[in-house]
Amino acid sequence: GSLEVTARPEQETVSVGQTVTVRYTLKNNKALPLVWAEVMQDVPVRECLSPDASFRLRTFSEEEAASTGRERAYIKRFSFMGGYSTLEWETVWTGVRRGVYRPGSMVLRSGDGFGLTQSSGETDGLRGRLLVVWPKLVPVEIWPFLRHVWTGATGKAGWSEDPTVMKGERAYQPGDPWKRIDWRTAARTDELMVRQYDTVTPLSVLFILDAASLEDKEEGISVTASLIRALDANGIDCGLALPATETRGPLLLRAEDPSVTMRSCLFALAEFEAESATSRFDRSSVMSAAAGTGQTWVDRK
Q: What φ, ψ does residue 99 adopt, rounded to 5°?
């Protein structure tokens, strides 16, 4: 067509409250000028992203909805565009709530100043790109998850020593417990050496989010996402089990799967349709994953 638009986001992931700048370029590929032109972009799912004033939200009439295939859209309008000309602008989109935006084709419309002639067409624009708003991250304490380990309990430091596995010795330092001194070595060499043991931490954590029973579903998702992020920063692999919704089956991300990362868990939570969540899990798969996981936590409060 005579009009072509490209759109390039500076990044594809933001958190709630953060912004992403999308750079647009609109080209008139014909010699004839356009009296007016419009760029039409889909409304993000759950309105997870909101644009600045360069776009305005329009709700279409039944006739317009039938012709555009959309009930609502964000519109950018230009009053005049010369032949073989290019217009560029930036729009700042703000993350409002978690969600995954998969833009469809952008609709381009143009016509004369009297509305007597009008043409429209579609172009890819942002089609094929993903814009992700992560769940809201909040401060969380992770020491309760690190307290219960394979061999017993430990303190808030999040680690415990396995006295059956000694990994070496080092020179005594003031403040070291006397019970760790290797007295046989001291008697033989007249040097105080302290035994060092191997440490034990949780190998992995599996979160089961029973969203249907949560009073505040968004808070539950936010806390779960924050715990996964914090545990990952401490070197602990996390898995995630989500129930089926009206449009999707149950999801299981196994912590032992090398392809499962902190980002893939947060992506699943960002996309999760909590409002239509059921209590249906793939129970056999979840139980199998839980059996091979260091800890299993069920969020249903």
A: 165, 165
Pairwise CA distance, residues 16 & 147, whole Å: 31
List, for residues 133-161, the tens digit of each pLDDT value: 999 999 999 877 765 444 444 433 344 45
Report the chain's terminal Cα–Cα distance, integer Å: 54
pTM for the structure as a whole: 0.77
